[in-house]
Amino acid sequence: MDYWLDNHSKSNTAPRTHENYHYMITQHIKPILGHIKISKLQSSHLQEYYAQKLSGGKLDGNGLSAQSVKHHHRLISKALKDAMRWEFIIRNVAAVITPPKTKKVEMQTWDNEQVKAFLEAAKSSPYFPIYFTAINTGMRRGEVLGVRWQDIDFDNKVIYVRQSLQEVKKVGLTFKEPKSGKSRSITVTPTFTKEMKKVYKQQLENKLLFGQAYHDLDLVFAQKNGKPIQPTEMARNYLMVVESCGLPYIRFHDLRHTHATLLLQQGVHPKVVSERLGHSTIGITMDTYTHV
Questions:
Q1: Across the chain, what does the average pLDDT equal?
Q2: CA distances from 27 to 20, 23, 58, 72, 169 (A)
Q3: Rg of the Cα trace of the chain?
Q4: Looking at the domain assignment, is residue 214 inside a domain?
């Protein structure tokens, strides 16, 4: 697994994904399976490993969720598949195992009135334009924080998703391709472009204020000095706004689900919603939003 991490994952996956893989391998997989030679690994070893993690895989002694163990399974299977390609082994023993079944979690979203209440409460927040964008485009947090002025076509009212901002341990903030690996376009309303012009005007004032000390990365949503927004700082503010207006808590990512749910309820075709979200197939959209 160390060989796979250093010679494949490090150079072929996004920094944050590699970080997650590194954690799963060093903190979970190696301590239990690390003593077994890859050529001697059996499906029964993996089955026992999954059972052990489900019953007591956390540091506090509680079991990992079925979804977490499923992630472990996918990682092990991926690594073994590469090991076959490198001719280290002749078969992938993970391929014959059925990972733990996961329970479908009920999606948490807001309705129209709740969205209005949230945006009203957020108006005084410096992150209001970010929340407004997330709700009106369905973009992921990193995609919103990574959008540049060159990605917004004001004339045709289109925003292009071309990069994503991520916070990676030991690396800091970094930009990467969108999750799907390819860019996409999202049509926006006149109200949205009007709001973005306000952001642009404020940014021009910040540039004059900071002068040469301004870090011009062309980011739409930036700190006053032009540097990228810290996701953790924004997350704290988001929680404060939600609590201030007494709404049921939903994650920032659920603003994306809220966007999709409201569109589908309004009768927008699932294919259109799927394209806005950047799903690879319309089937993913239909499966995700079966509650609508």
A1: 92
A2: 10, 6, 10, 11, 16
A3: 22
A4: yes
CATH of residue 210: 1.10.443.10
| Per-residue pLDDT tens digits for 211-241 | 999 999 999 999 999 999 999 999 999 999 9
pLDDT for the residue 290: 67
Tell me which H or E stretch contains 58: none
256 and 184 within one domain:
yes
pLDDT band at 292 (very low <50, low <70, confident <90, very high): low
Q: Which two tokens stand for residue 43?
A: 């499906």
**What b/e sequence results for 135-159 when a residue is b if at least 16 CB atoms lie within 10 Å of its CB, and e otherwise?**
bbbbbbbbbbbbbbeebbeeeeeeb
Judge contact between 182 and 23, C-beta under 8 A: no
CB 217 within 8 A of CB 149: no
Q: For residue 259, what are its two tokens?
A: 């966007």
Q: Give the structural domain span for 80.
A: 2-96
Give domain status of residue 105, yes or no: no
| Nearest partner of 237 among 247, 222, 255, 252, judged by Cα | 252
